[in-house]
Amino acid sequence: MDRPAEELQEFDLRRQRALAYLRQMRAARADMERVRRARRLLPVPATEQAVAVLDHVAANDLNSIAGVGPGLIWALGNCGIHSRAGLGSADRRELGAALGPVGAILNIDDLRERARTPAEALP
Length: 123
Description:
Elements: H1 3-41, H2 48-60, H3 70-78, H4 84-88, H5 92-99, H6 101-105, H7 108-116
């Protein structure tokens, strides 16, 4: 096979991978939206214990970090990161490599710093 044909084939393979990744991200966003809708429908008992649990969850929830949406939460979950503490303590290089193309786009240091900032200190 000549070089242009190989390059075209490689480009097509990369395009297919990117499209598959985008489909996964859209599916993750739809899953997160279904969970959010379900959470709104569940009654929560207004006890001190329930409030304390919800405060703890909110303080550790990746959704409370500015700029982190369902797609990034899904990608972080695939890397084994499910909380602010996990993100804050993650190794920058390992996280960037594990996130693949997303890691190349993100400012990992800024993201880790925002995860270390207490949720109540955020605007």
